[in-house]
């Protein structure tokens, strides 16, 4: 009989009693006990050494080397933040002046066209040569659009001479690309760095691969949708044009030039998405940008093209990148897809990031689980005793949540929603088939993970080739629950180690079958997501079909097993209250209320 500990410390106090043998120490654990109320987090090297001193981590020279590199990067960020603030002030002034001068040039050109149109109407009998210079006339031997392109380029050159070229951003500190085996501590170290940047850098984001790809996809669809909606002349004529004292023809010409500028920008859609990927820069929010990107992968054509366009743009405009992966940059693209684009991406990474290997062969997540006393979050097999314990834990957690169990819906993406059959104050319960047996994907799992700090999943079967599509969804689900630091309870048919080993129906490591199935299933899932969200496929990029290799799947299996093991350890559970978005929102709300109350008190007392 497995021992069951009280969940009250998780839901009410944010800590869990634990006992781990001091003989065996752990290294793949994130700094879960970080106090959210702390005004400034310590640097990654100090965090790492403190955990080693406390006996919670075993010293690892590879990890310490990465922690030192991250500490050095952190030390350069404060000055870089100031430099970027000054740069963005200059950039905003440059953009304002350039737009003012651009409109002046447009108005001058419109005035010339306006006069030329009147002159032509009076002199109808003039030669054909003069008519070619009249308003909105085009030569038949000139390709449509060439005239606008030449006008656009000439206007940009004039603006360069009037306003000067775009200000040059200060040189950014080199970021880090951290790679190594599953469970070697990559994510732990990156998260130590990310927590330490709070209060130093204004614009900071942390994304897992799945979430980043979805955000890129969503942003691209929004841009395409806006472009389609703005094709109407009346709706696209800006107010500044409508207020001019020109006739309607001149205003339509101005509007056409404005639309052409937008079309030129839309041809480079990825840089446009990148500019809004981290932050929407508003007044008073200028400064440096940091992107922490967990599990960089090159699993399909879309991922390669999107990553290349977005990351290259961010690095070129001064964003500092800290990323993790199982592979070195040059080894990301095992299938050789879009090789030219991929090589440019790798060159950009190597130019802007220090490439560091976490060379340990030990999966520290497994080591901690083997030495922990409590292992009560994963109940197996699916027999009477295990199921009884699973139900008992569900009742205990619900009682501590102090609410009524109801069904509700959570927003996903593209206007979709997902129904949660059983939910209570941040606690949710699902069956395996409900989450993994239907055409849902990473967007749905992110929505579940963000909305619920504790998730129960029942009736998890052994993964075999017969249900390989469900197995892949389950891996994605675990990735997102782990990435958002959820507390997970499972009832399963077998132990974690045997979960992905297959049955008599076939092992999961039939690589040829997996590759074929991944191609078809990946395409189907993307179609389902887009269709349900009423988003047309017409504007979507080609070559979006997944082409995961069998070796990539094996990486994913090992990662899922490693994370499932860690998610039942006490040290992981300590961090749920401080790291999960549910509790972070509550903490932020409390801070806002406290600030409002202190402001009112200050105003009243004065």
UniProtKB/TrEMBL annotation:
Keyword annotations of the record: ATP-binding, Coiled coil, Nucleotide-binding
Name of the protein this chain belongs to: AAA+ ATPase domain-containing protein
SUPFAM superfamilies: P-loop containing nucleoside triphosphate hydrolases
GO cellular component: mitochondrion
InterPro entries: ATPase_AFG1-like, P-loop_NTPase
Coiled-coil annotated residue ranges, if any: 63-111
Family: Belongs to the AFG1 ATPase family.
GO MF annotation terms: ATP binding; ATP hydrolysis activity
């Amino acid at each position: 009989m497995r021992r069951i500990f009280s969940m009250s410390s998780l839901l009410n106090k944010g800590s869990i009693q634990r006992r781990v043998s001091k003989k065996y120490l752990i290294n793949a654990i994130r700094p879960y006990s970080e106090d959210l109320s702390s005004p400034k987090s310590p640097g990654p090297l100090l965090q790492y050494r403190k955990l080693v001193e406390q006996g919670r981590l075993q010293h690892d020279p590879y990890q310490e080397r990465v922690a030192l590199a991250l500490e050095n990067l952190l030390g350069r960020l404060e000055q870089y933040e100031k430099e970027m603030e000054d740069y963005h002030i200059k950039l905003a002034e440059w953009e304002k002046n350039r737009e003012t001068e651009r409109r002046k040039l447009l108005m001058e050109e419109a005035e010339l066209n306006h006069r030329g149109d009147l002159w032509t109407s009076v002199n109808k009998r003039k030669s054909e040569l003069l008519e070619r210079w009249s308003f909105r006339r085009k030569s038949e031997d000139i390709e449509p659009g060439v005239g606008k392109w030449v006008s656009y380029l000439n206007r940009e050159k004039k603006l360069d001479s009037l306003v000067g070229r775009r200000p040059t951003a200060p040189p950014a500190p080199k970021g880090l690309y951290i790679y190594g085996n599953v469970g070697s501590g990559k994510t732990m170290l990156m998260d130590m760095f990310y927590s330490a940047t709070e209060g130093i850098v204004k614009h900071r984001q942390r994304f897992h691969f799945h979430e980043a790809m979805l955000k890129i996809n969503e942003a691209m669809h929004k841009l395409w949708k806006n472009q389609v909606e703005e094709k109407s002349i009346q709706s696209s004529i800006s107010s500044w044009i409508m207020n001019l004292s020109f006739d309607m023809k001149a205003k339509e010409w101005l509007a056409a030039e404005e639309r052409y500028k937008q079309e030129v920008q839309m041809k480079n859609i990825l840089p446009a998405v990148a500019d809004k990927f981290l932050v929407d820069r508003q007044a008073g929010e200028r400064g440096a940008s940091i992107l922490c990107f967990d599990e960089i992968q090159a699993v399909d054509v879309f991922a390669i093209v999107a990553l290349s366009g977005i990351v290259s743009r961010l690095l070129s405009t001064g964003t500092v990148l800290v990323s993790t992966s199982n592979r070195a940059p040059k080894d990301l693209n095992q299938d050789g897809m879009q090789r030219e684009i991929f090589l440019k991406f790798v060159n950009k990474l190597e130019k802007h990031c220090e490439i560091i290997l976490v060379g340990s062969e030990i999966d520290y997540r497994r080591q901690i689980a083997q030495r922990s006393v409590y292992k009560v979050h994963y109940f197996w097999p699916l027999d009477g005793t295990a199921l009884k314990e699973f139900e008992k834990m569900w009742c205990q957690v619900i009682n501590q949540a102090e609410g009524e169990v109801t069904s509700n819906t959570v927003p996903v993406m593209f206007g979709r929603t997902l129904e949660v059959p059983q939910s209570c104050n941040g606690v949710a319960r699902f069956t395996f088939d409900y989450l993994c047996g239907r055409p849902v994907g990473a967007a749905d799992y992110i929505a579940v993970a963000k909305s619920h700090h504790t998730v129960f999943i029942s009736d998890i079967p052994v993964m075999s080739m017969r249900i390989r599509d469900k197995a892949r969804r389950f891996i994605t689900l675990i990735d997102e629950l782990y990435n958002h630091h959820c507390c997970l309870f499972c009832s399963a048919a077998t132990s974690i180690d045997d979960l992905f080993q297959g049955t008599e129906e076939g092992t999961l490591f039939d690589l040829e079958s997996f590759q074929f199935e991944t191609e078809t299933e990946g395409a189907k899932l993307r179609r389902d997501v887009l269709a349900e969200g009423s988003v047309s496929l017409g504007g979507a990029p080609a070559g979006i079909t997944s082409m995961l290799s069998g070796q990539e799947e094996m990486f994913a299996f090992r990662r899922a097993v490693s994370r499932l093991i860690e998610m039942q350890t006490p040290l992981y559970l300590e961090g749920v209250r401080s790291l999960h978005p549910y509790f972070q929102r509550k903490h932020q709300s409390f801070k806002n209320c406290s600030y409002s109350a202190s402001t009112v008190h200050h105003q009243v007392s004065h």
